[in-house]
Amino acid sequence: MALADGALPVLPLGADKRPLGNCPVCADLACGGRPNMKTPGPCVCPWPCHGWAAATTNPHVLASRQWGLAWRRARAIGYHPGGAGVTVVDLDNADAVDWARATLPATTTVATTRGEHWIYSGTVRSVNKVREGVDIKSLMSYARWLGPGIGTMTDVPAAVHALVAEKPAARPAPRPVTVPAPVGGGACPHRSPVYLERGIAMAEQRITAATSGVHATVYRTFLAVLAAHGRCGCLTDAHIGRLFTAAQAKGESPRHCTDAWTNATTTLGM
User: Which is higher by pLDDT, 185 or 141?
Assistant: First the structure.
């Protein structure tokens, strides 16, 4: 809670340093989440559950019963560097540390069990294995909290930007929408098509702007869109596809998008 008060989005890690499922349904990956938990699994609950997307500063979520079960099992604290506005250069061995000392500008450093974390101000795309023993952890990733470290934090250096740029993004292309648009039949509250277009654009922006609790943000956004536009028949497959594309761009799996959408329609009795 103290870390969250300091604007560090946190999440519970198990003894194997992997994020824990944060609700009974997702305990031990019973929901089918990916074993490495680098991206959210296909969770069907509305609570933030998997990996970096679950990291949050919200004290009510952190103290909730759902998260309490995970915190009691946790053996370490993880955090989402990108959500905190920082980049972690994870140096996994002595050779990697020597390379950093010869190549990168001094910044805040934290000792790890096998090497060091060098922490810089600013965010970049997260990439593993940019060179032997070196991972870059920032956006859409998590790191283990090992203390505040020593030294004055400096900005992400050009050398790190260059390493990230050398590795092409491995994100798969968004998949087409897999859920039907609501049938409709209710009274239409839209005075013009602009009303619906503005609502979809705002929903896309809300998902895109999320830096923590992405899993929950996607569900709540789907819920809001359906509540406002889902009963009159104006919501089309194209609109839903835009929302799914925005969610997948933040790391949500296609199956999770489908599950979140189904959850939202069930919640609203549609």
Answer: 141
**Residue tagged 């944060």 (tokens):** 22
| 219 closest CA partner among 28, 4, 32, 40 | 40
* Gap between the terminal Cα atoms of the chain: 37
The angle formed by the CA atoms of residues 30, 34 and 35, to the nearest 5 degrees, is: 85
pTM over 0.70: no
Contact (Cβ atoms closer than 8 angstroms) between residue 6 and residue 57 = no
Sheet holding 10-13, edge to edge: 10-13, 76-79, 143-144
CA gap 54, 10 in Å, rounded: 8
Supply angle C-alpha 50, 221, 248, rounded to 5.
55
- pLDDT of 85 over the 90 cut: yes
Closest CA to 236 of 187, 177, 174, 189: 177
Residue-wise pLDDT tens digits, 186-220: 666 665 677 788 888 889 988 988 877 788 888 88
Q: Is 56 helix (H, G, I), strand (E, B) or coil?
A: strand
Which amino acid, one-letter code, is at 146? L
